Amino acid sequence: MPKYDRILLKLSGESMAGEAGFGVHAERVSALAAEVAEVAAAGVQMGVVVGGGNFFRGVAAAARNMDRVTVDHMGMLATVINALALQDALEKQNVQTRVMTAIEMRQVAEPYIRRRAIRHLEKGRIVIFAAGTSNPYFSTDTAATLRALEIRAQVFAKGTRVDGVYDKDPLKSSDACFFPQISYSEVLSKALAVLDGAAVAMCRDNQLPIVVFNLNVRGNIMRMSMGEAVGTLIH
């Protein structure tokens, strides 16, 4: 029996690229879609936010001398590409899916309207939120937190490449210390880079729990939705 009725799942753009680290890897996206579809089939209402790093990291060097607002808008458009790829993979799993974008592009996806998004969720559709908040200077972590609060999700779940929150990068330091649980304030005071600080502060101010878990372990999305001790709980 799922612990949560409604979840906001944040996926990094890199999670869709597979080992290549760039672009969309069809098999990887299909595997992710299968896991998300399995959780939805268990009765959990799913909102999803996908980053754009698998496209945007590739042009980051060229963008260094560009205007920050322009760069951020380019990143938002990269998230739309990923959202459409994930939608296609989910619909191949026979799951009804809607992509809603913060930047209007009606020929591609629905504009984001909060009440319509909630209605889609209530009808059992997975809603993929794209284009961030449409505002520059906001990360996709912050956009995901905003959407989680707007749709009244019970948890903000962030899938990463590591098992949860550590005091330092475990991929670079073998002596990194893992935190099974940690408070919002500790994450901010220790400047732990697992989430954007603004996102953590928003979750703290609204008492929205965060679960950070390893997306590369098959079945972890389902385990997280069931309330099992997967990854790190920030509360």
SSE order and pairing:
Layout: E1 6-11, H1 26-41, E2 45-50, H2 53-56, H3 68-91, E3 97-101, E4 110-111, H4 114-122, E5 126-130, H5 140-150, E6 155-160, E7 165-166, E8 178-179, E9 181-182, H6 184-189, H7 197-205, E10 210-214, H8 220-225, E11 232-234
Parallel strand pairs: 1-2, 1-6, 2-5, 3-4, 3-5, 6-10, 9-11
Antiparallel strand pairs: 7-8, 10-11
Helix pairs in contact: 1-3, 5-7
Walkthrough of the structure:
The chain is an alpha/beta fold and 235 residues long. The protein has helices spanning 26-41, 53-56, 68-91, 114-122, 140-150, 184-189, 197-205, 220-225; strands spanning 6-11, 45-50, 97-101, 110-111, 126-130, 155-160, 165-166, 178-179, 181-182, 210-214, 232-234. It has a single domain (6-234), classed as Carbamate kinase. Helix content is 36%, strand content 19%. Strand 1 (6-11), helix 1 and strand 2 form a beta-alpha-beta unit. The two termini are 22 Å apart.
Please identify the top-level CATH class: Alpha Beta
Please tell me the total number of domains: 1
Task: Based on the coordinates given, report the CATH architecture.
Answer: 3-Layer(aba) Sandwich
- How is the CATH topology named? Carbamate kinase
Q: Sheet bearing the most strands, described? A: 9 strands, mixed
Global structural class:
alpha/beta
CATH superfamily: Acetylglutamate kinase-like
Mean pLDDT over the residues: 92
Strand order of the largest sheet: 4-3-5-2-1-6-10-11-9
